[in-house]
Design goal:
With about 100 residues, the protein is mainly alpha-helical. It has one domain (about 20-95). About 75% of the residues lie in helices and about 0% in strands. The protein is built from three helices and no strands. It is elongated. Belongs to the FliE family. It holds the Pfam family FliE. This is Flagellar hook-basal body complex protein FliE.
């Protein structure tokens, strides 16, 4: 077997491990995710309040639109509260762990 023939083949490329994000990058991404989620909940609450005010003033006659916006805001707020409660429970559980 000719060794020179082997050297003419294309070099084998090993896959480079994906660069793992640093803890600071993960924290920044998580923080921005939570901030965006809370902003969406706030926006839904504001939209619901605006629609209710416009309905009370007689500007909107479609009660379904107001009701759906109110329920959407309510469900989003309840979900946010449940996520917060789970995060607090998780933190408390971690604090109870013995080292």
């Amino acid at each position: 077997m000719d060794i020179n023939a082997l050297s003419q083949t294309a070099s084998v490329r090993t896959p480079v491990a994906n660069k793992l994000p640093t803890p600071a990058e993960v924290t920044k991404d998580f923080t921005s995710f939570l901030t965006d989620a809370l902003n969406q909940v706030n926006q839904a609450q504001v939209e619901s309040a605006n629609l209710a005010d416009r309905f009370a003033a007689g500007e909107i006659t479609d009660l379904h639109q107001v009701t759906v916006a109110g329920q959407k805001a309510s469900v989003m707020l309840q979900m946010t509260l449940q996520v917060r409660n789970k995060m607090i429970e998780s933190y408390q559980e971690i604090m109870r762990m013995q080292i």
